[in-house]
Amino acid sequence: MLKNYRLWWHAPRLRHTSGEEERKVSWLELFFDLVFVVIIARLAHHFGEHPSWYGLGELALLFIPVWWVWIAGTIYTDRFETEDLSYRTLMFVMMLIVGVMAVFAPYGLGKYADAYAWSYVSARVLIIGMWLRAGKHNPIARPMTNKFAVGFGMSAVLWAISTQFDGTLSVVLKGVGLVFDTLTPLWTIRDQAKLPRLSNHKLPERFGLLVLIVLGESIVGMVNGLADAKDRNVLVFVRYILGALVGFGLWWVYFDFVGRRVPNRANIKLSLAWSYGHLPMLICAVAVGAMIAHAIGTKEPEPITLMLLCTGYAGALLCMALLEFTLAPEHPAVVHPATSMGLKILLAAVALMVGLVFHQPIAVLGALSVLNLVMMLYGLIWWFRSPHSRPGGPSHHHAPEHH
Q1: Exposed/middle/buried for 143, CB within 10 Å: 0-12, 13-18, 19+?
Q2: Residue 263, helix vs strand vs coil
Q3: How many angstroms separate the CA atoms of 309 and 275, rounded?
Q4: Residue range 243-253, pLDDT digits in tens
Q5: Which residues face 263 on adjacent strands?
Q6: What 8-state DSSP symbol labels residue 199?
Q7: With contact defined as beta carbons under 8 Å apart, do 199 and 170 qualify?
Q8: pLDDT range class, residue 400, cuts 50, 70, 90
Q9: What is the distance, to the nearest Å, from the Cα of residue 300 to the centroid of all Cα atoms in its chain?
Q10: What is the pLDDT of residues 134-145, one digit of tens each?
Q11: What ranges do the domains of the chain cover?
């Protein structure tokens, strides 16, 4: 058997939905996501210890490489997954690299900037090799895989060069590298349009799992806030409950209005916008989780922490509104799309006003909980008015669990 290596080391093959059952998320993909739990938690903890507008920008810049490693592995898997030793080995190596990134991530722009940069470069080199290997064995996909290799390669080179400089120039080089990361998928739009479409439900499920990981930071934040409170009186427990309602509400709104549906695959630009739109939403959700701990556990938190909490919440709602625009139309529609998006944008604006007007944690958490309740009730009312809520309805098998 060892002589016939093809039994255990398969060439990547281009996956498609035609003639295949709808694929599900594999155990290896779930295992792969666990390492991102660690790195996201460490970034959130660092931001929680340094709550400021600079800290929010630092969080975003450090989170984006994490996102690109995750999305690169996810899209590669959806395109070229194989059930063999080679795929498992590559995923395990990627997990080891992300683990190293997690070690250095909290100070990835400070004393460990070079180590974080080199760990990101290592992840990029690995995924570039995976794309090139896939293109070699799938000529129809080669134009796309070559462009991914070139674009991501430019980013890796810039991050490597950034380690030779300090201060602003190093950060600028990293930022330009991330621009290459961002523009590369757009460069491949025409090439991707010529390939079999991606899975209708597996990719939304993968994104939903990452959203769960990030929203889990709200749970961590509310538990840490209660644990860190010096005097666990009635008011602290009220803040704890309200903080939970903020995190629970974001879960509810995302999975009722976005997560239960699929992106518009008929328009590849909207499909890419759906993918890109998750990035700022996730950054905002991490910020919410980190700041909830301050709102619960600190008797008189600094105004900046409450403003950051409201900003993160508003940003998450705004991103969800934009994500709704990228989804495939429902027939019949549960809610009127323009009204649903408009309500989220309005509530996001109100959330920012809450941060400017209120300076007590219980008032801020209470106000954000009310905004969640408005969005939740809106969705519930229209859901129960729609055919989808009835047994055997148009999308009954995709209905949210609470319905």
Answers
A1: middle
A2: strand
A3: 24
A4: 999 999 999 99
A5: 327
A6: P
A7: no
A8: very low
A9: 31
A10: 999 999 999 999
A11: 23-193, 202-387
